[in-house]
Specification:
This protein is 36% helix and 25% strand. The protein is α/β, with parallel strands linked by helices. The chain folds into two domains: 3-232, P-loop containing nucleotide triphosphate hydrolases (Rossmann fold), CATH 3.40.50; 249-314, Alpha-Beta Plaits. The strands form three sheets. It has a six-stranded mixed sheet, sandwiched between helices. The chain has a four-stranded antiparallel sheet with strand order 2-1-4-5, covered by helices on one side. A four-stranded antiparallel sheet has the order 12-13-11-14, with helices on one face.
Amino acid sequence: MNLAKSPTRPAIEFRGLTRKFGQTKAVNDISFSVYPGEVFGYIGPNGAGKTTSMRILATLDVPNSGTARVDGFCCVNDPERVRRRIGYMPDGFGTYPNVTCEEYLDFFARSYGLRGKDRLASLQNVMGFTQLDQIAQKPITGLSKGMKQRLCLGRALIHNPNVLILDEPAAGLDPRARIELREMITALAADGKSLLISSHILTELAEMCDRVAIIEQGSLLAVGTVEEILTNRDTADGEPADAAAVTEGQVLIQVLEDGEKLKQWLQQRYADLPVRCAGRSLSFAFQGSESDRADLLKAIVEAGFRVSGFEGKQRSLEDAFLHVTRGRVQ
């Protein structure tokens, strides 16, 4: 998504949001915005404050100070307007005995005031999008975890909201179900919806999110793309980050002979290079561009080493997460 083309008004906005439980600040003065058509990842350890702030956005809790807005409407002062504009998918939801998938979604469609043709059209669209139309008459209690997640997403979509708040939507899903969920999220963003997603599966978020926010102990540590966080963020200890150190990638090399000879050659060429060698496999941190890696491979081959594998691995969302957090809990 090109944020430069985004409307000036964000779809989701936190400004100085704070929520206390006794002496504990579950959410401590956080501020960030999410724009229409953006998939925004919200990550942090357990107890960091993700669910609390998402519940405030969903009008299920109120802050001690600061504001949360959806499409410009305050979640405290205009909760009804906010609820019509959001779809909330919690990390767990109740099921009802002797209720089918279609009956469950129909109940929520009626609860949102949908009537007649509009209600039937919404049911048809949502069940088709989530592929629940194939099991419309199946009781909820007999659904797998993946199908229950689809049903919960369908409930969040039934009134066609502009904003979706998804709390751990991929938790407990098998690989195929996660891929299918990711495809649905991408399609919703392409339709112009804003998605705020919390998850502990960082590889999933890295593949579908435009930007992320990292929170720990209720405080926001970083906001931006993975590259921006790695290159522009101070460390969690408050010390400026070494841009070169945090942007370096990993190089993995396989050779046909003993890797110790290549290790010695590399350390002669690059002083103090920390090379790990295990038989014919070597790995080391390498600062440089794609062109620099290509030059390195050329030099290794020209030095007489027979290379059977060469891979450059860029820093990931997990690297960004570990870079700015310190594993603190509250």
